[in-house]
Amino acid sequence: MKWWPSLFPAFRSCWFCSSPMRGMVAASVVEHICPVCREQLVILGESICPICGRFMPGSRDTICLDCNRLNPCERVVNRSAIVYTDLVKEWVQTFKYCGKESLALPMGNWMTEVVKKRYRGKGISLITYVPMHGERQRQRGFNQAERLAKVIGKNLWLPVRPLLQRKKATAPQSKRTRQERLLAVTNAFAPGKGMPDRDCSRQTVLIVDDVYTTGATIRACGRVLRENGFRQVFSVTFAR
Amino acid sequence: MMLYYYRLEGEKKGCISLDPAVDLWYWKKQGQRLDCIYRARSVKEAWSCIQRKKTGNATVLRLEELQPAEEPAVRRCLKKAGTLFSLLVGRGLLWQEVIQWVEKHQLEVNSTELRKILQVLLLQGKCELKPGVVQRGSVRKWRCERCLYQGSEIRVSACSTCGEECAVCEHCILMGRSRACTPFFLFQPVWEKPDAALSPPLPISLTRYQENAMMEIKRELEKNRKQILVWAVTGAGKTELMLPIVKKWLDQGKRVLWATPRKDVVLELFPRLKAALAGHRVIALYGGSDQRFTPSAFVLATCHQVWRFYRFFDLMIIDEVDAFPLYGDVALEAGLHRALFAGGQQILLTATPPDHWQRFAKNRKLPTVILPVRYHGMPLPLPQLFRETGLWAKMSQKRSIRVLARFLQQLDQQHGQALIFVPRIQDVHLVISWLKEHSPHHFKKAKGVYSRHPQREKIIQEYRDGKWTVLVTTTILERGVTVPRCHVLVLGAEHPVFDETALVQIAGRVGRSANYQKGVVWFLAQERTDAQRQAQKRIKKLNEFVQKEGIGQKGAYM
């Protein structure tokens, strides 16, 4: 009976490390992460910065210093699933650089849960993602933010549009210091081929990316979207 | 990545080309003409042109517009092709890996030139080109050419590299991505003329019984057996046993692979083999090894790394054949067979052959050499079974556990070092915190370790050096660990991860040193399982066999 275990698997495995564990099929992503992985995670709960979603243990509704420094009209509200710890870094690298595209599913599902919980009643009508430069995307074979956005869009029944495009090829943000990051991405983005011609001032758009570090990328995207008439811009990332 | 597909005049079968200019030059020299030529977007498309003899979406090129390469340029390529081939002989590499090799060895070749060089090798028949994943027939028949995997881990996804949907293999993804549009190169091995290398004699001496086993293996090898099973009990000195054979083959100028499924075993064996085989180059390959780009005749590798070889080795020693992840993984097994040179031989080393292998051995289907006695001739320690109901509840509530306390007590009396095995990773912490409560002086010298522990290697080394008395571990340490004053306790021995083989291996950690035989093996479980009883029975049988044959202590020591 070779087909038996394919219908009724003996056990399910952890989404990220494939060690066997118990769990219901319909459980949330967090419940399908093995205790060893979960031990090394910091899941973002209520004590976060209300703007950028940074983990701030012990405080509530106080804006973090980095957001305080910014011009209020430049801020983009961001929410993330987990803190960017070493293990999460490993996952993101496996996903992005090793190209294990199947990780888009648990990561996207998890981000969907975040969107449902944090942006309830915000009236998000459109999803877009942080674009990659054409040459880089050809090398890597896929755009990780696009994959995540597709999963989220499918879960939420919302359209995913390529509203943005990257004008210049920048070196990877992950290899820069804070100051360099903030400078590098200004004017890196332009309206893409998915940008609608008609008035979109009543629409609320959600930007999807994998990691939020300084937020420079997300803010640069947000600025372009606002310049093109979108009323409200939110963002969701996997790690913060 | 652009590729070309062409047919020669008067021939039905087509060819793939990386750079048609080289082909034009080559066939002009051979006095043949091209019939038609197409440009394909990826190796997948070019490959399907050959297989289906249909050109599909490939673009037709006009032959008149193509110019053959110029003579001096080709000469340069030929020269560089020789250098590249001498480095890559007998390897199976993806396109991006070939580029890494070129960069590492500073060949100063850009990508257009590299395509020309590889095309020269293809035309010379020194190299074969395939797509990373072959999409042919139904989905279940699709196969990753790199890791030879067929099954559900091959997925289709939109690919920006070739602009289509193509298949990607997630089975071997941690070693670099193999896609349907990624070219995969198999470099043919060449039979090098053996240079009689004189290496210093081995710094080891074998016991009489080991000597006999070794001679028997040599006899079987001379009979040209494809596979030989060497069944040696834990602590029999398998490594020492194989060294004379490895040395003999290396001295003859042949190529030898020592493969094992575990990285820990590679790390442990490497210094030992390097010391023993002075005079030969020894390299260790594992995930994150820095010797990846070194060619060598003797390779010590984890089984996954063997996917990067193609018909290279004359002799293959596969250590711990029955261990996870090798046993039962069709792809890894196929990889090992592919890395074997025509007429090559495999020696399978194990202390616990699976049941059906034992049957093969009995029916003489698989030539087998048995070494049932340890190198010092002492019997194997027999496991004792204990029962404790509600073990894990007691552990988490920090209530006293009689057997565990007694184990620690006798450990102190015998001045030993303990290995405490637990079934799951989360149990490691439970046991450590139990020790904190009930036995503080042991807690101070206790550490926990599991597969993904950040300091795993360091802690194990410190334990070997005697810094820690108690090491709480999952099954990662069931093999390949030698600590002279070892005592073993298995907590929760009823858990399915502790099958018969695992328990026999665990019991084999004890009493490996001739001058310390006081170590004990205790299995503590909530209930008796078949595995525990079978493990006990098997060890008992082996000891009885040794007694009956009279090859115990006295004989082995001669």
TrEMBL record, chain A:
UniProt xrefs under Pfam families: DZR_2 (PF18912)
InterPro entries: ComF/GntX_DNA_util-trans, DZR_2, PRTase-like, PRTase_dom
Gene3D superfamilies referenced in this protein's UniProt entry, alphabetically: 3.40.50.2020
Domain spans labelled Double zinc ribbon: 7-67
Family statement drawn from the similarity comment of this UniProt entry: Belongs to the ComF/GntX family.
PANTHER family tied to this protein: DNA UTILIZATION PROTEIN YHGH
Protein name, UniProt field: ComF family protein
Automatic annotation (TrEMBL), chain B:
Domain Helicase C-terminal: 403-558
UniProtKB keywords: ATP-binding, DNA-binding, Helicase, Hydrolase, Nucleotide-binding
Keyword Hydrolase appears in the UniProt entry: yes
Tagged with keyword Lipoprotein: no
Domain of life, source organism: Bacteria
SUPFAM superfamilies: P-loop containing nucleoside triphosphate hydrolases (SSF52540)
Any Gene Ontology biological process: DNA recombination
A single MF term (Gene Ontology): 3'-5' DNA helicase activity
InterPro entries (alphabetical): Helicase/UvrB_N, Helicase_ATP-bd, Helicase_C-like, P-loop_NTPase
Helicase ATP-binding domain residues: 219-371
UniProt name for this protein: DEAD/DEAH box helicase family protein
Organism: Thermoactinomyces mirandus
